[in-house]
Amino acid sequence: MINDIKSKLPALNLSLYLFLFVLILPIVIVAIYQGLIATDRYESLASIYITEAKSESSPLDLSMLGLTSSTASDRDILVLKAFIESPTLLDKLNDDLGLLDHFASSDADFFSRLTKDTEREYALEYYNEMVTATLDEEAKLLEISVQTFDPAYSQKVLDRILYHSQKFIDNLNEKVSRSQLLFFEGVVQQSEEELMQEKKVLQEFQQKNKIFSTEIASQTIAGTISSLEQQLAAKQAEITSRQGTLGENSPTLIRLRAESEALKHQIEKENERLAGGSGRTLSEIDSEFRDINLRIEYKTLRYKSHLEALEAAQLETARRMRFLTIVSAPTMPEASLYPRRGYNILTGAIIALMVYFMVSVSLAVMREHA
């Protein structure tokens, strides 16, 4: 019997060592660390929402089919989420508040704090563990959580995140405005310059030809010719009536014939002026004048069209403006919610128990086949 007990002693000692070092010791270590060593972390929370100046309704209600349609604000809030998780914001927060120095503070325990002068990639991973942005798909809310080793500091960091998020949305609005309006403003300016150039050409044409409007000039000349022809007809009628009573060499007839010839000469002169004579005809001048006016009308309509397009783009830009709405302001944490000591101890105990069970079973199987 004593020999049986001695033969079983190695197995009992192995089981005891296994129980102590694989099960009990890990649980004690986890409990001591979580209960006495692990540094408290304080969480500040905030919720934000991106609104549009005017929402664009979908022509098809996809909700009837059990589907959801993605709007511009949905995409913007996802872009904002990526910005919050980006190294760009980490750099801004580090410049503003010395965030990485706080995470690497010697006041925190070794396993909780960030290693000083760590690589950028590891610092970003640590940052994304402490700062999280979770999207509520139903409410379209972005819930931001910040954990640090000081309650007031957590709230301060979250305040700066919201500040930089607001600037990020403002920059998005400015980029949309600049990209849409810059082109139209350039087109409107070019159209205006072309219109002013054509008006300058018209002004130079009027000064060169000493004419305001060819239509008015034509009407004036035609009116003058008509008046002269009426006067000529009256003179010829008077000459005819006087020839029966006066002699051919009568001073009165000589005067009337001279006046009649003067009227004929004036009519010919006015006709030459209308027809152009040896110079440019009025019809040629009128053709050039009409071409200039036609170009002015075309470029005026073009300028008005571009101006309307600019106004439409301005309205569209205003409609697409995004606004960051803070639904829940950053909270001031009063209690340390992290680390979750009881949960972590229980999880460690379960893992240790599973490892102990698997090792025990493995050793038992090995003894059976030994």
From TrEMBL:
GO terms for molecular function: protein tyrosine kinase activity. The chain crosses the membrane at residues 12-33, 345-366. GO terms for cellular component: plasma membrane. The keyword Lipoprotein does not apply. The keyword Coiled coil does not apply. It comes from the Bacteria. Keywords: Membrane, Transmembrane, Transmembrane helix. This is Capsular polysaccharide transport system permease protein. It comes from Cohaesibacter marisflavi.
